[in-house]
Amino acid sequence: MEGDTTPQRPVDAAPADPLADPVGWREHEPFVRALLRRLVADRDLVDDLAQETWLAAARHSAAAIFLKRAWLGTVARNFALQSLRGRQRRLAREAAVARPIAEGGGDATGDADPAQRQRLLAIVAALQEPYATVLRLRFFDDLPPTLIAERLALPVETVRTRLKRALAQVRGQLQQQQQPPKQ
């Protein structure tokens, strides 16, 4: 184009180096890793958190450029704390599920007595097809709706609809059984 003075990159020129460090973040890598090693014992987790820190640095605004070391330290500490909190939540969930099972309940919810379980099984067995199959696959075989849909060659939304309808029928039957007989 005439009058266009914009420099053109040659067609065969190599693209910009994706690992280039124009801002100078890499000089702080030993600091970030040392900080994370003090906060986290697991070496693999240190690597993961360092990568998260570098990704955040690559995405973040220019304001972080002026406070590189302090900003990186804060980001690395925050990722380490998030990881620790997530681990604590996971352990608490696992302990909550393991407690009723260890106490002999055999049921993760810990609130279903054997008689109620038998009533529930009878209600599910009495359901008409296709609701009984979908319900058994979902709650007894512990399959997610996507796998049920694949197994039955159905759309996922059809499986979800059948699950909703089956659960409504089961709830209705349970409510009927719990109501005292009218005199």
Describe this structure in words.
- With 183 residues, this protein is mostly helical.
- It has 2 domains: 26-102, no CATH class; 114-178, Winged helix-like DNA-binding domain superfamily/Winged helix DNA-binding domain (Arc Repressor Mutant, subunit A, Orthogonal Bundle), CATH 1.10.10.10.
- The chain has helices spanning 29-39, 43-59, 63-66, 68-102, 114-126, 131-140, 145-152, 156-178.
- Helix 1 (29-39) crosses helix 2, helix 1 packs parallel to helix 4 (68-102) and helix 2 (43-59) crosses helix 4.
- The longest helix is centred in the middle third of the chain and has 35 residues, at 68-102.
Helix content: 55-70%
How many individual domains?
2
Q: Distance N terminus to C terminus?
A: 95 Å
Major sheet description: none
Mean pLDDT: 78
Contiguous low-pLDDT stretches (5 residues minimum) are 9-15, 106-110
The ordered string of helix (H) and strand (E) elements is: HHHHHHHH
Oligomeric state of the chains in view? single chain
Q: Using only CA atoms, what is the Rg?
A: 29 Å
**Binned strand content:** under 5%
Q: What's the tally of helices?
A: 8
